[in-house]
Amino acid sequence: ESMRNWLRQVVVLGLTCVLQTFSCSAAFALPAPRTKAVSSYSTIVERADSLVAAGRADSALVLLDSVRAQYPRAADVHRLYQTVAMGDGPVPPALLADYENRLRAAPDDPLALYLVGRLLPDSVGIRYIDKALQRDPGIVWARFERASLRNRRGTPSDSSLAVGDLIELLRTDPSFAEAWQAIGELFIARGD
């Protein structure tokens, strides 16, 4: 039985790697979705990642802030900006206030709902993300975030909902490597 489980994990992991490789090559054949990086700012985002890796988060935030101003609809830029601003700590009040102000200016904007939802505690944040996805099911990062939140709850039904979110995300964007990795990890954790 343990050999069977080990073999199942190896197959799932191998399949995940193959699918990630396929999804990365598919990224060059398919048009980029509207919520993922485009060539006009992806180099700057890569530079910000490098600055963070070098321990220069403040410089990365300055760079990302200029990109946020230039590309206000780029979910991935905002997501990276939020992640860098939070570091390993709690959500800075000024960061939450900035995104809440954006939401007040456009209360039905799915991107603003998603970005505020990321900063709130899980039980409240998921409601904002649900609203964002009701208004625009194509925001791939929102669907990924909701799957992560559901998975963190740890119940079997939430785990199934997380898998459903990831499968739907991959239908929308088959090149979304993080989703392939997450679905593989979920299947391994569930013993599928």
How is the secondary structure organized here?
Elements: H1 2-29, H2 39-53, H3 57-70, H4 75-86, H5 93-105, H6 110-119, H7 122-135, H8 140-153, H9 156-172, H10 177-190
Helix pairs in contact: 1-10, 2-3, 3-4, 4-6, 5-6, 6-7, 7-8, 8-9, 9-10
Distance between the termini: 14 Å
- By DSSP (H or I, 4+ residues per run), the number of helices equals 10
Instruction: Quote the beta fraction.
Output: under 5%
Number of strands: 0
Structural class: mainly alpha
Mean pLDDT: 82
Order of helices and strands: HHHHHHHHHH
Largest sheet geometry = none
Low-confidence stretches: 21-39
Percentage of residues assigned to helices: over 70%
The best one-word shape is globular
Radius of gyration: 18 Å
Describe the protein.
The chain has helices at residues 2-29, 39-53, 57-70, 75-86, 93-105, 110-119, 122-135, 140-153, 156-172, 177-190. The chain is an all-alpha fold. Helix 7 (122-135) runs antiparallel to helix 8 (140-153) and helix 9 packs antiparallel against helix 10 (177-190). It is globular and about 45 Å long. The model is unreliable at 21-39 (pLDDT under 50).
Comma- or semicolon-separated keywords:
192 residues; mainly alpha
